[in-house]
User: Fold this.
Amino acid sequence: MLKRSPSLTEQVKSHLKQRIVASEFEAGRIPSESDLASELNVSRNTIRDALSRLEMEGFVVRRQGAGTFVNQHGLLVKTRLDEIVPYEILIREHGYEPAIKLLCVEEQPADSGLAAALNLQAGEPVLVIHKLFLADASPVIFNQTHLPLKWLKRPHTPDDFLAPIYQILPKLCQQELAYSFSEIVPLIAPPWLMDRLALPSTPTALLALEEIGYNPDNDPILKACSYFRDDLLRLRLIRRQSQ
Amino acid sequence: MLKRSPSLTEQVKSHLKQRIVASEFEAGRIPSESDLASELNVSRNTIRDALSRLEMEGFVVRRQGAGTFVNQHGLLVKTRLDEIVPYEILIREHGYEPAIKLLCVEEQPADSGLAAALNLQAGEPVLVIHKLFLADASPVIFNQTHLPLKWLKRPHTPDDFLAPIYQILPKLCQQELAYSFSEIVPLIAPPWLMDRLALPSTPTALLALEEIGYNPDNDPILKACSYFRDDLLRLRLIRRQSQ
DNA sequence: CAGTGGTCTAGACCACGGG
DNA sequence: CCGTGGTCTAGACCACTGG
Assistant:
């Protein structure tokens, strides 16, 4: 427990997470922060940082004066929308076997909306990647990613685009995805989407996630739209009192 | 800058937020953490805590070795889904004048699903509160809150239920809302909802937020379903790299 | 290279909970 | 009352950015 680089805090966090899911703590009570600090030979602040993150993720509840406790409800939540998680993992955590189908990769000129969102000249060429994610062979997510061609530093093959976008970016573009702003939009599946997602021909409501992704320098580098079949995947999040 | 109770961190945070929205920082650059620490007479850790929260909320971007900067994109985002915010404020931040209409408050026995979600006996009485939120007089959110009758410690009048639920709970139930787990569900408005939300008679997609609210002791205390007209309100959130 | 944010420590005091 | 988590401090070292 003395290596660097995963940070100490991160090591403590995964250590505790492991013990939590293994139900190692009697009656859901986690040892006091001071006890953990001396047990793991780190300062109490480091323990507190780790516990704060576990609390944010819903694994733990803290009560001043009483103690820190395992959050049974948090353990049941499969997937949270407030983190960028590869869709394969999201699908697997819902109990399905994930698969990806790369439908098409094409070059298009940016329309004015896209150009404005990504700080481009109108008409600048953009790579559009169409992907379909399957859960146990049923289509569940259709994803459309717009990536300005100017970011591509290397020639690419279709296989490159099977990976999650945040793995593609460092390799092909020497860019990194730091965060994204996402809009959540409900829609009635139009015919072309019913087709892509193999929906029954009755009108169906879908969730769309429209995201602009930024690099650590705070420049917009991509736009992504994802359409979810919510009968197979449920999007969840934890909301907290603001102040 | 020496009072307690809003915490020092919280005071520093709102102080900085104020200066950010007033565009006080040249070229979006925020002074270094050490400078802020001596300027505000607090330790660097306190400054860092405040900046971390501002970063979480999207107001600020930090880059190791370079500095801390105002996030222009973050300032444009009106409302974030990952915090519990009163719907009135959400509506106002979208540029409308909010209003609330209390439609009805009735007592019902809990069905089995509700009983399981809230740890109740099947059939236990539950108060169901129906509220409609208006933006410039147009209905935008229909909210249905299920509150077990056993929590009510005092007699209530309809007026009590005009306030946000997290203000009602302390007064009427001596309870506090700590956090909630929310499912995001798209749906096609059924006739009764089209009626409530004054939707046109063409099929319309809506967002539903289905929440279970917990108190600090981690007991479920209420269930709430809210239906949003997304043509007037857009729900947004910031997603970050998990690790 | 100097200056920035990132991490960690040791120690202090406070506010709250439960016995 | 004691033990818990909540807050804050002062100081240290590291990793990274930029000129």
Observations:
- Chain B touches chain A through 51 residues (CB under 8 Å).
- The radius of gyration of chain B is 21 Å.
- The mean pLDDT of chain B is 90.
